[in-house]
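Figure 6 in text form: structure in, sequence out.
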């Protein structure tokens, strides 16, 4: 390094060496160039810094293009119910996605394993929920766009300090939050304290060791976060459908008919219902009857 460098150059160089992302390195390099010595002895330094900056920008442009291609390649199309799994590196995001869905993300014991969003589908009692594992929130691969568009965020943590740190990064997201505390290797006493602290903070939370048995509560809590109703249909004399129709709360029979086929409600001659909103099994109701979650609707057409 040339002599007589400005103190702000030294500070910027320290920022560069401590930077964790390319964006941070870029800003530090720009500061270093602006504060590099202007005398003849500093010409080589400025030339080296400008070359380093050029290569960094080229690298960032390539990686941005790769991330865009990766998203297009895996076809991230927002489904009716979409949740994003977010958190810091090495908190178990890939393990959680693998456990909940049909996805097979890379799982490794080194930092920033996930470099592009990974999509999986959770089948919860016939209801399809799209889950997306987002690269670690502190990495350069973090996808803020997915986080902002998701309906629900599963915030995976291994330590309480991570909650506040992650919340600061969420920006424009209006999604529901579910804190998922990865409890692997915790003692019974530690689990008791974790539960008490989460409860005292009034978080919507689940404590799980990322195993099958402890994950069922999370599935139910996740579905409830979308505030949707599951309405089953059936044909006369047959069993109800395996997969429900998903509707907003306070939906009516007409909404079910129109979800099946636009204009179908005009062909309905009679409707019978079973379930929470019926006074008795097979009750005959009109198209304006308000439904409840898990109702079964049978249509007879003209």
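Output sequence:
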């Amino acid at each position: 390094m040339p002599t007589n460098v400005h103190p702000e150059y030294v500070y910027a160089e320290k920022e560069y060496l401590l930077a964790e992302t390319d964006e941070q390195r870029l800003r530090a390099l720009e500061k270093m160039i602006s504060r590099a010595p202007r005398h003849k002895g500093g010409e080589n330094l400025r030339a080296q810094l400008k070359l380093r900056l050029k290569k960094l920008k080229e690298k960032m442009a390539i990686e941005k293009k790769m991330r865009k291609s990766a998203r297009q390649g895996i076809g991230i199309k927002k489904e009716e119910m979409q949740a994003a799994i977010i958190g810091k590196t090495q908190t178990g995001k890939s393990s959680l996605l693998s456990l909940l869905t049909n996805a097979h993300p890379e799982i490794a014991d080194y930092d920033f394993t996930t470099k592009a969003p990974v999509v999986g589908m959770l089948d919860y009692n016939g209801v399809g929920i799209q889950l997306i594992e987002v690269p670690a929130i502190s990495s350069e691969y973090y996808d803020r766009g997915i986080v902002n568009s998701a309906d629900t965020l599963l915030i995976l943590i291994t330590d309480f300090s991570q909650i506040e740190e992650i919340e600061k990064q969420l920006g424009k997201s209006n999604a529901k939050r579910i804190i998922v505390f990865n409890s692997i290797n915790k003692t019974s006493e530690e689990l008791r304290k974790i539960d008490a602290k989460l409860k005292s903070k009034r978080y919507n939370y689940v404590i799980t060791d990322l195993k099958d048995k402890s994950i069922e509560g999370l599935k139910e809590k996740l579905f409830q976060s979308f505030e949707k109703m599951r309405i089953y249909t059936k044909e006369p004399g047959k069993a109800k459908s395996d997969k429900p129709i998903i509707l907003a709360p306070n939906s009516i029979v007409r909404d079910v008919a129109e979800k099946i086929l636009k204009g179908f409600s005009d062909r309905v001659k009679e409707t019978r219902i079973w379930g929470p909103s019926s006074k008795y099994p097979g009750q005959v109701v009109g198209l304006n009857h308000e439904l409840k979650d898990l109702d079964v609707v049978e249509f007879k057409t003209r």
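Caption detail: The two ends are 87 Å apart (CA to CA).
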